[in-house]
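ugh ok so i messed up the first submission bc i forgot one of the chains. this is the corrected input, ALL of the components this time, i swear. 304 residues overall. if the numbers dont match what u have on ur side tell me asap before i send this to the collaborators (the ones from the other lab, u know who)
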Amino acid sequence: MNPSRRQPVHAATSSSGDELYGITELAAEYGISLRTIRFYEDKGLLAPRRINGGRAYTRRDRVRLGLILRGKAVGMSLAEIEHILSLYGEHGEGHARQLDYLIGRIDAAMAELDQRRRHIETMVAELDKVRGELKRERAARARAAKKRAGAT
Amino acid sequence: MNPSRRQPVHAATSSSGDELYGITELAAEYGISLRTIRFYEDKGLLAPRRINGGRAYTRRDRVRLGLILRGKAVGMSLAEIEHILSLYGEHGEGHARQLDYLIGRIDAAMAELDQRRRHIETMVAELDKVRGELKRERAARARAAKKRAGAT
DNA sequence: CCGAGTGCTTACGTTAACGTCAACAACCTG
DNA sequence: CAGGTTGTTGACGTTAACGTAAGCACTCGG
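and heres the new structure output, hopefully the right one now
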């Protein structure tokens, strides 16, 4: 409830190995709005550190954002994406419970993605069929024109 | 504004070669609601014939509905799908204007789909990476357990 | 010290894609 | 012919995924 201080944050490409990025940098990089990034945070998909009241994103956060956008591009809801991000998240920082369960979950997610891929291939095949018909028709028209030319 | 007559319509699998289907049949077949099908009609994605006030769908309508659902499954909006359906539609019933233009449009649509496919493959690769890490970790745990067993 | 620039929060608005509900019509059945 | 099933058309509600706008905080350049 207390906005307090500010500070650009931007590329802290200094001695520290953990480079940080500001929200506008990320927005520009991925071509999305600030509002969208904050929205993803509200949804729990991102959890940047706060520095002087401003959001500071790590490379890891950027990867997550990339996954979010890819997920959207292939038709996943933010809820589904959150699901996948949880798999992608911290596994091994000490407890690492149920490795088998996690691997199973990942397999399931991969299977679903594969299903979508097959859907796409089916649609491409359908379109290719139509394309073939059109090409044949065009060829037929060309032949007809040739014939007309020969008749005159 | 006049609902008028009705009639089940259902499978007119009689002498006529153009089998017709009722809305409930389609809904059941594709596992969607009646409301959804009517909604697609409102959006211009479907245009079934009317028989006694009731909707009558042909095989062609079913194919279109299949494309709609596939499109949704891979993350296309209804507007985009309408776009593709227009390509899929009646080409050649007499006029067939701008064949080249149509073929170009189809190529563009296929390219977009291919882009989505690549996104999926990238995500699958990411997940596979995580999966590999988890498997290694599991193996390490197994070795540690073995060592403990040997020590006792 | 003042205004521009950047960021934060809160809150209301918007669009897409349906769901839900009401009221009515036609049909078949007992 | 009363009642149930199946269908139709509105009209309004809902959810997801943001957009837009208002108002305050802080910092920097002049």
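quick check: Chain B has two domains: 1-89, 106-152. that seems consistent at least. The domain at 1-89 of chain B is CATH 1.10.1660.10 (Multidrug-efflux Transporter Regulator; Chain: A; Domain 2).
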